């Protein structure tokens, strides 16, 4: 089993993905502003122990409580969650933990994984509230559907967002409900081969580049 890259390289890959995919393709039309403001926090959670990762998540909530200049946190999970089903299982626990810790309505989690496949009736997107997406009708996707790349990141990741910022972004967008549909159409037009190459290019980035 090969060693994973250094934390600095994991962050460099993730930054490249945000800039060269999420922002470049307007997957999240609200991301560019935060990139320009340098208000995104990138943090690597070391270790594969689920309890450790959940503890780290709450620590990141505490940091957001204390540092309003941080708009959102990308918590990168490079160990122990390579299997997408294992990732989803822990994601469910993490969401329950946020509620138990009193963070419901304050922070929300968006989910990203290298092998992400949409299996439900709703396509998740990190810029929307659940009630907006529940009114957007999608079917689940096959593993090779290009639409999955909306949530395929270089590493497993939890995106911790401020609920009030999500609400404001959605309220100020002229047609928030159309964004998931537009993303699906655009990515399917690009095709899996082109998207896979762009994703792989992000994984090749290193901090020294």
Description:
By secondary structure, the chain is an alpha+beta fold. Helices cover 46% and strands 11% of the residues. The protein is built from eight helices and four strands. Helix 1 runs antiparallel to helix 8 and helix 3 crosses helix 4.
Report low-confidence residues grouped into runs of 5 or more.
Answer: 121-138
Q: Bin the helical content.
A: 40-55%
Strand content: 5-15%
Distance between the termini: 25 Å
Radius of gyration: 16 Å
- The whole-number mean of residue pLDDT values reads 90
> Structural class per helix/strand content?
alpha+beta
Spatial order of the strands forming the largest sheet = 1-2-4-3
What is the tally of beta strands? 4
Features:
209 residues, alpha+beta, 8 helices
Topology:
Elements: H1 7-23, H2 31-37, E1 40-44, H3 50-66, E2 72-76, H4 84-100, E3 107-112, H5 130-133, E4 157-162, H6 163-172, H7 178-190, H8 192-203
Parallel strand pairs: 1-2
Antiparallel strand pairs: 2-4, 3-4
